[in-house]
Amino acid sequence: MKDWFRDVFTAIFTVAHGLYVTLRCWLRTYDPDRKAFTQHFEYPELPVPVADRYRGFHRFDLTTCIACDQCAKACPVDCIYIDKERVEGGKGFKVTGYAIDYSKCMFCALCVEPCPVDCIFMGATHDLSCYSRDGCIVDFSRIPVDIAWGRTTLNPTAVADSKVIVEPVHGGPNSN
Question: Residue 167 falls within a domain, yes or no?
């Protein structure tokens, strides 16, 4: 009988404690000094502050890429697509397309290490919102080099505009 009362007391105490935690968190949302996320960071006009080693959306330099496919081979989910052509009258390849499908990417940064010329690294972009799945595929060969490369954030408007451009903006290191 003593065990039964202890079990009933434990059950009532556990439920009461759970209700207390829920009620405390619920009442905290009515704090007049509490601000929304957009009021703290002025998002999307100003980027969200991220840590130094944050693995955000990739940054890619098409001007130094040698089309070695090492990043695509290292990717465990096969989300990197490289289109290349052999250079006529020279050696090597010309990159005609470098796309990353962010609906597959798990931001593991395994593609960054094997690159022999350091043309790809993880950027600081926190969000790259889109309304359709084809918006998740970013073709870095269609984005202007000054937007695609650098440690700044990747502009979602430039990515959307790059889907309208028919020809690549830059042909790579072997272009004339």
Answer: no
Per-residue pLDDT tens over the stretch 115-155: 999 888 888 777 777 777 777 888 888 887 777 776 555 66
Q: Which two tokens stand for residue 1?
A: 């009988």
Contact 133, 103 (CB under 8 A): yes
Model confidence pLDDT, tens digit, residues 42-72 = 766 666 777 878 888 888 888 888 889 999 9
Say if residue 14 is in the same domain as residue 61.
no
Q: Are residues 92 and 16 in the same domain?
A: no
Q: Which of 79, 96, 78 is nearest to 87 (CA)?
A: 96
DSSP code, position 124: E
**Residue 21 one-letter amino acid:** V
Helix segments in 29-134, DSSP class H: 37-41, 70-74
Phi, psi of 85 (to 5 degrees): -130, 150
17 and 98 in a single domain? The answer is no
